[in-house]
């Protein structure tokens, strides 16, 4: 089966899709012009055979981009020449050359995190075209291009759009374009929308400079379609700003195509996809190096899925920004936040100060002594996993009313996190730091005590994230992973000044209950007494998932959180489980919390398609929060409830609105 997928995926990759079954349709369609279909097969087979000879591992091939350039070259040969021995040999040679060029070019382009697109095809096809002018055996075998079947809408603009769509596969016929358009529309409305929009803008821009009929009939209009789809939804996240960038790329390409045509005509060379490649790669290199917000670093099967993944990262997991844990346990009061009105200014604006308040005061008695302050001497915890790179703890704690203006930061510790940034905690108690430089600390480890050293008017914890390991380095924005406020658990957020928050406490027993291990098996019976089995498996990326044999539900266990983050498959109990339990706080307190379900879990069929399309214009449509309530062994949501067994790990009862799964051979039910 994998070999079959390997063969058909390159066909799908030509139109930016990663579905092997789409390749089957395009494979059949390629025989609309038999020579195109025939040489396409020759190119794929010869490229795979060469890859096996030189020992290229299959994982390099299965994503398609090493093969689809060779496929395009084969189709190009089939577009110009009828079937002959000379053309077959030429196709094999060109396919191998294209594969070599693709492999080398990909290594270079990967430095800039941009795709090779069809650059290898564009270059090798020019070599082919030039060489063919000398091959008299080939020239006598030029093809008379007549497809098996075609039709017309009797509208120049509409016919031109579909012909341009078909030209992507060297099938410049209306019927080919219609089939490809139906495939694209059925899979991604965003891609189809950009294809139409790119074509319209490209043609009418071109018509400003040349007669309309010349603009609408240009054989290179397919470049407009490819540029619009690539920048509008494949390599950039679907968003109005990117739709605009895509159209700018299309408009620029108008001049680019005409200029290249004039130059290439001197040597009787076709332009092919070179404008598309140059425009898209130029945009992507620029946007990647400026750190563009909507750059698509995780390209999924469709723009809709890429958008869902991107928005899930933002609204479910706080985006790609820095996230740290609170440096204390218990309940503390936010004395000063980002850009505070006292000391958090300028390059040190991203910092937080915490104190402990009881009955509206931070101290007991008259507050004349350090020991009167509730925060003084309280444990300070590591907010990240990482190595201690600097510390100082010999400075005395100030008497109340005094500050140390010379040693502003007081006693401090700097930790380099596993992700490369640095966390500084300041104003610690004298001689309280119990770790040394070079020690590795984990989240929650006690590293010192709250003090009043440095420029500190009263005992408090100062925490900041910074660029470098140097004391007082420029600070960086961050969020706290979790905190409890007014009985609600917040993730990847920042509390406001003058709010009291509580640090969640890990429930180790609950963490053990969701410690799913490879090949664990969980058996259930549904309401129809049918046996349902979930198994724990791992893919080639090291990701763990639950599977029922057909569908896959991906999960991850963090410090104090278990969550599902991806699902592959159709309607199933696993998909329902995602709805019931997208996140599970692994803490020892009953709280309310919120999560955002991806659109594919909230809508179906046409409603889903509409919402996905609308969300690409306004990402806030995605951010519809669902409330969950955590009790000791249950999680409740609007979709149902999930129970946990007391002695066994995993879920003992999964109960949705229209279904119920009960564990088989459950050891203990008395705790519910």
TrEMBL record:
Keywords: Cell membrane, Membrane, Transmembrane, Transmembrane helix
Presence of the UniProt keyword Lyase in the record: no
Protein name per the record: Urea transporter
Family: Belongs to the urea transporter family.
Organism: Caminibacter pacificus
Transmembrane portions of the chain: 12-32, 38-56, 63-81, 87-105, 112-131, 165-185, 192-213, 219-237, 244-264, 270-290
GO cellular component entries: plasma membrane
Membrane topology: Multi-pass membrane protein
GO molecular function per UniProt: urea transmembrane transporter activity
Compartment(s) of residence: Cell membrane
Domain M23ase beta-sheet core: 377-468
Record PANTHER family: UREA TRANSPORTER
């Amino acid at each position: 089966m994998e070999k079959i997928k390997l063969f058909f995926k390159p066909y799908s990759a030509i139109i930016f899709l990663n579905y092997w079954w789409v390749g089957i349709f395009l494979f059949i369609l390629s025989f609309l012009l038999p020579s195109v279909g025939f040489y396409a097969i020759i190119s794929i087979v010869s490229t795979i055979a060469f890859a096996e000879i030189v020992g290229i591992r299959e994982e390099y091939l299965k994503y398609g981009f090493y093969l689809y350039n060779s496929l395009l070259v084969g189709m190009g040969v089939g577009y110009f020449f009828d079937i002959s021995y000379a053309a077959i040999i030429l196709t094999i040679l060109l396919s191998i050359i294209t594969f070599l060029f693709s492999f080398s070019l990909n290594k270079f382009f990967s430095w800039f995190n941009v795709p090779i697109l069809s650059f290898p095809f564009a270059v090798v096809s020019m070599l082919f075209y030039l060489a063919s002018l000398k091959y008299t055996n080939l020239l006598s075998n030029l093809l008379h291009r007549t497809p098996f079947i075609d039709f017309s809408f009797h509208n120049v603009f509409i016919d031109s759009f579909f012909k341009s769509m078909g030209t992507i596969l060297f099938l410049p016929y209306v019927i080919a374009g219609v089939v490809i358009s139906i495939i694209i529309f059925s899979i991604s409305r965003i891609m189809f929308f950009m294809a139409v929009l790119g074509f319209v803008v490209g043609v009418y821009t071109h018509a400003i400079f040349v007669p309309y009929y010349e603009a609408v009939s240009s054989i290179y209009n397919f470049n407009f379609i490819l540029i619009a789809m690539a920048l509008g939804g494949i390599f950039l996240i679907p968003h109005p700003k990117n739709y605009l960038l895509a159209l700018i790329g299309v408009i620029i390409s108008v001049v680019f195509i005409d200029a290249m045509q004039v130059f290439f005509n001197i040597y009787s060379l076709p332009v092919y996809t070179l404008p598309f490649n140059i425009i898209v790669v130029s945009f992507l290199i620029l946007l990647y190096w400026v750190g563009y917000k909507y750059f698509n670093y995780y390209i999924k099967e469709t723009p809709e899925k890429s958008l869902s993944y991107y928005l899930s990262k933002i609204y479910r997991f706080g985006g790609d920004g820095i996230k740290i844990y609170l440096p204390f346990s218990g309940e503390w009061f936010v004395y000063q936040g980002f850009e505070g009105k006292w000391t958090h200014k300028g390059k040190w604006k991203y910092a937080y100060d915490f104190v402990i308040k009881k009955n509206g005061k931070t101290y007991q008695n008259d507050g004349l002594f350090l020991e009167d302050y509730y925060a003084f001497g309280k444990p300070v915890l590591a907010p990240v996993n990482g190595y201690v790179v600097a510390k100082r703890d010999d400075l005395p704690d100030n008497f109340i009313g005094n500050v140390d203006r010379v040693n502003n930061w007081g006693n401090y510790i700097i930790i380099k996190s596993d992700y490369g940034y640095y966390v500084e905690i300041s104003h610690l108690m004298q001689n309280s730091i119990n770790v040394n430089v070079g020690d590795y600390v984990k989240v929650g480890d006690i590293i010192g005590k709250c003090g009043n050293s440095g420029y500190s008017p009263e005992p408090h914890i100062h925490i900041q994230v910074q660029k470098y390991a140097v004391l007082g380095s420029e600070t960086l924005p961050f969020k706290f992973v979790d905190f409890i406020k007014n009985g609600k658990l917040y993730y990847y957020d920042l509390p406001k000044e003058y709010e009291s928050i509580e640090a969640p406490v890990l429930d180790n027993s609950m963490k053990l209950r969701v410690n799913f291990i490879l090949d664990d098996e969980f058996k259930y019976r549904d309401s129809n007494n049918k046996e349902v089995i979930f198994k724990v498996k791992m893919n080639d990326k090291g990701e763990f998932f639950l599977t029922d044999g057909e569908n896959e539900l991906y999960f991850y266990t963090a410090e104090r959180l278990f969550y599902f983050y991806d699902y592959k498959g159709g309607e199933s109990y696993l998909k329902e489980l995602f709805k019931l339990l997208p996140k599970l706080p692994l803490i020892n307190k009953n709280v309310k919390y919120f999560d955002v379900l991806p659109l594919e879990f909230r809508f179906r069929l046409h409603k889903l398609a509409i919402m996905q399309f609308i969300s690409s214009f306004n990402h806030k449509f995605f951010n519809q929060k669902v409330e969950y309530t955590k009790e000791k062994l249950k999680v409740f949501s609007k979709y149902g409830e999930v129970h946990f067994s007391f002695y066994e790990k995993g879920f003992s009862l999964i109960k949705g609105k229209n279904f119920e799964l009960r564990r088989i051979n459950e050891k203990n039910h008395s705790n519910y």
